[in-house]
Design goal:
It contains 5 helices and 4 strands; from the N terminus they run ααααββαββ. It has helices at 5-47, 51-79, 83-100, 117-136, 168-177; strands at 141-147, 154-161, 181-183, 190-195. A 4-stranded antiparallel sheet has the order 1-2-4-3, covered by helices on one side. The chain starts with a helix and ends in a 12-residue tail after the last strand. 23% of the residues are buried.
Length: 207
Amino acid sequence: MPPSPDDLLLQLFHLQEADRHRVGRALHDQVGQALSAIRMGAHLVQSEDDAEIRQEDLREIIRASDEAVAIVRDLHATLHPPQLDSIGLDAALRAEYERLFPGSTVTLASLPHAPAADRALVAFRIVQTIAREVAHAGGRIVLALDGDPDPRGGFTVDMQVQADVDARPLLQALANAAGGELVVVPDAPWRLRLPYGPLPATSADPA
């Protein structure tokens, strides 16, 4: 039996809460610690007379600052993928894949037509959510991107998924709401297919 609308809304709520918890933990544990180290280092520099030690303290402040900036940029890219607007869906998916699976690379063909911004965001969020759950489970995912040369057609993302994905019903409902589908067949790649055209005037971002 397919999940009810209430079940999907509850699943969306839990997914959003998990994202908020992850962001909050990163801000507190990582960014907060880096800022505390910067503050402590600044106080040490103020009271340090030895030039060599003062330079070492300054280098530590710079290192902690770079670390905090990198964490904030990573969180921003997770919450809002600005690269979709500038580098396109294929490059954005490749960057997200390499971020979630460090040391791995993926080659994706460029689409013959750029999807509407809302459709590109739907595709990105669906693939991102699947890849994130797979990465968290210690599995792997293989991506392939293809597009119909006719702009009235659509584009597809094929995914060989090697882990369970709890959010699958929610993602299938999102694909259907965007005028497409997420087809899951046992022992076959998952296929996300979406049209190029614009969505109705509603938000497409589940996060």
